[in-house]
Amino acid sequence: MKALLVGEYRDGKLLGSTYELVAFAEKLGADSAMFLVGSESDLPQYNGTLYFADISKYSEFNPTAHKQLLLDVIAKEQPEMIVFSHSSYGWDLAPRVALALQAAQVSEVIDVVDGNLVVPTCNSKLRRDVKSKTTQTVVTLQGGAFGLSGEPSGSPTLVKVETDAAAQVEFAGYEAVEKGGVDLSKAEIIVSAGRGIGKPDNIEMIANLAQALGGEYGASRPVVDAEWTEHNRQVGTTGQTVSPKLYIACGISGAIQHLVGMKKSEFVVAINTDKDAPIGEVADILAVADLKELVPALTEKINSL
Amino acid sequence: MKILVCVKQVPDMESKFKLNTEGKWYDNTDLAWRMNEYDEYAVEQAVQLKEQVGEADVTVLSIGSDRVKEPMKKALAMGCDRGVHVVDEASFAKDPFEIASIIATFAKDKGFDMIFTGMQSQDRGSAQVGVLVAEMLGLASISTIVEFAYDNGQVTVRRELEGGLKAIVKAKTPALMTCQLGLNKPRYPTLPNIMKAKKKEMLTLEVATLLQVDAVQETTRMYFPEKKGGGIVLEGDVGNMVNEIITILKDKTGVLA
Q: Which value does ipTM take for this structure?
């Protein structure tokens, strides 16, 4: 099996997730080559052919050019599998490439079992085994699902590629994360509020428990989107990645994007009315309860210790 | 300005899911249904754009059984002008390529200036359909937008990337946007608007008239993930639970020690 791995560059740097693609190819026992729109100053440590386009010429977001560069490489390499990260770059570019190849795209792959691509469905409550019906298959890999390929090593053989495909959209730069406020990445104890808290007033209850424990409070995406609290408290893929000693998830169902952000927590307590919520998969303690009863009771008890 | 917005009906994700008899999808009975959350942002953005430009017509399209008229009625009550119901009892079994192809075939000769979709559905979660539709139609597309501005044929958006970083991207219409959570504040339909929506046009099309491709992938099996176990599950009296949690925290962590 031959796989083409699509490395990823962001804000001037190679992303570590590129090595997860290498780990995936190793797991499949596939021969791989890599494609990257990047800079020669930060190349992947990879022993193989790297089809390389200069990012200063093709920009970090120019789907038309990136697609055409990739299609030219695919025509040359004839890989059976084209492998992206399931990231903002991957889920934008992968369908464009898949359609051009008239190939199946299977998104958010977390495992490969007996030739089936395994993907989560319904917020990770269910799994699907998927089979491609086309000779080439485009996949996007869920972050963290395949680990890294050990300590990255090696130096690629560069093959420079070019295209004159015109851009359909104009990338006008980045807007950085808002600075200031809390830095959850350094907090040792985090109590996080999810949609299950029900209403904005209940943030206070979560903050009180965090305070009783001497920690900070965080939130899942829906709570931030609803503007119940500020963005710098968001834990997850598009928020902060945290690694506290104790993480208490209150009313958080456990969407994969949230789990990715808090999976390095040493000890996880989940409070949820749904015994089957995916958060239960990573929790050391799952308290099946109404958080509006349990959280104040827990806070009171801790304050009385 | 002609605007198309595509919506999907999905079960409430808090539902107790069961598998269907083929074991290839979830059982459709006894579920609470709602509009795919990402699509609510798409509808709101379509309606806001219409309000901004004044002269605009917003079509909401959905594929599925009669049941999908519910989220379409909601979209009409939010301010869309007309509905297109593509009748398909087996839409759940169609892959993203087929679904996108149905939408693209419908939209092909309609001259839409803007198309909005959710960035993904909450159930299948493939995050492909919007981008595929644009590619099939040869339109510019921008995925996973969290901010949208329109001025005289020019769209300026923020694309959400990982770690809180956003990319600023511009495109000229016609174009397609896939909408990420938090893009705007979807409005609640008011009672007068719900009443008005009942009088709005709802065109019905049979899926066979729009589907011209075969599936490129198939679900061979659906199942519940194996419980990894290891975690302690506490149930019952809240007072007891509090004591148990505190004991375990003292025992197993440095916290409260």
A: 0.94
